Amino acid sequence: MARWRPVALTLFVIYHSIREIEAQKPVRDKVQDFALRIPRVTIDELAKNRTLRTGLHAYVLSGFAEQWNATNWTLDYLTEKIPFEWVDYYPKNMEDVGSKPYLFKFDKAVKEFQHPNELKTDKPKYMQIRLSLRGWKRLKKDFVPKPLPDVFWDDDEWISQCMRKGNKADTPAINNFFVTNQWKFLLIGEKGTTMFFHKDGTAASTWQVQLVGKKRWTLCPNTESRFLSPYIDTYNPDYSRFPAFAMAKCGQVTVSPGELLYYPAYWWHHTFQLETPSISYTGALVGVEADRSDLGADRKPHVQFYADLQEKCAKCWQRGVSERQCDDISQKWAGAAPPPLRVVCEEYLPDCLRLWSEHAKALHGEDRVEL
Ligand SMILES: *[C@@H]1O[C@H](CO)[C@@H](O)[C@H](O)[C@H]1NC(C)=O
Ligand SMILES: *[C@@H]1O[C@H](CO)[C@@H](O)[C@H](O)[C@H]1NC(C)=O
Ligand SMILES: *[C@@H]1O[C@H](CO)[C@@H](O)[C@H](O)[C@H]1NC(C)=O
């Protein structure tokens, strides 16, 4: 059977060489104590808490998603709703940086997950579903009521304003934005599955709702990057290889059904499913964080996010050159992410950036928040 090479691993920025970490002075007998607190708050507590509302801290929000019909999701129900979606299917867990997925349609993936046939292994199985606009529209009906506070200003509020053709939302462009940026994900795993420690390649913050089963998280701020590597198993660290990990300020938290975890852009994360199945749903946010000083060239996360996207765009489109400069792997692998559309890169994203900037300014003013 053909194997799909996940070019989509551009998602992960893996530029911290092990050598760099090993060069740091070993700190004897020091271990990672996960001292970073990841508080649990209600929506009311969040609404009143200026620190958390900066969007610069991780926290678990509880007390609203328990009512969502999505907490009753089963694999059979999902198969009925989104049989057409593509799944990155990992028959042998996803604990290593090089884990390779098979690309299956959702209905086939679920069959294989429930009754392994072609891909029997002794490892727990894991699936990632990159939702299209169509799949997301079907599933979002089960996320009602959605009393998300205004720091959760999401694409429902902006995307059809900046991606418009004439006086209508440009649906193919929005769909392209979803799938090229892995914007909405459904994650389904068996107990023991884990996605290796990494940070995402674009500066959007993340929310993830745990719907079924429990999941453990390790989270480390971007400021700790010099101590971190995607080869660290944060659940069983090898301090002889990664002594510097002990020096990073990281936290751990377990999230239960109906709870939502938020973390800021570029934070490192490492997941571990505690039950079978674990089903969670994740989305990205932009234009919600206050300024921060750990991003490099710009202090505004949404400006950095824009730069990350334009860097991807530049690999495919150059001003004045009509031909696309990058491959379209979706022609060879139906279901793999296509290149970004030119109109998204050149016309829509600049308009979206204006909306993100306005929102961030309305939320945080011109405050300079130091980390
Ligand atoms: C805001 O939340 C943080 C983290 O839980 C907490 O330490 C702090 O006391 C809270 N601030 C207020 C004003 O409630
Ligand atoms: C989930 O299903 C159970 C049992 O059928 C039912 O009692 C409960 O109300 C449902 N919850 C939601 C949020 O629909
Ligand atoms: C949740 O599911 C129940 C039972 O299927 C249905 O009656 C109800 O309308 C749903 N609620 C929402 C908000 O969709």
Can you tell me about this structure?
Residues 144-306 form the JmjC domain. Keywords: Signal. The chain is of the alpha+beta class and 371 residues long. It has a single domain (27-364), classed as Jelly Rolls, CATH 2.60.120.10. Helices cover 25% and strands 18% of the residues. Helix 9 (301-314) runs antiparallel to helix 10 (342-364). The chain is globular, with a radius of gyration of 20 Å. 42% of the residues are buried. One 2-acetamido-2-deoxy-beta-D-glucopyranose (NAG) binds at residues 67, 69, 71-72.
Tell me the CATH superfamily.
Jelly Rolls
Determine the structural class based on helices, strands and strand pairing: alpha+beta
Q: What distance lies between the first and last C-alpha atoms, to the nearest angstrom? A: 49 Å
Question: Which CATH class?
Answer: Mainly Beta
The number of domains is 1
Helix content: 25-40%
Q: What is the CA-atom radius of gyration, in angstroms? A: 20 Å
Mean pLDDT: 88
CATH architecture: Sandwich
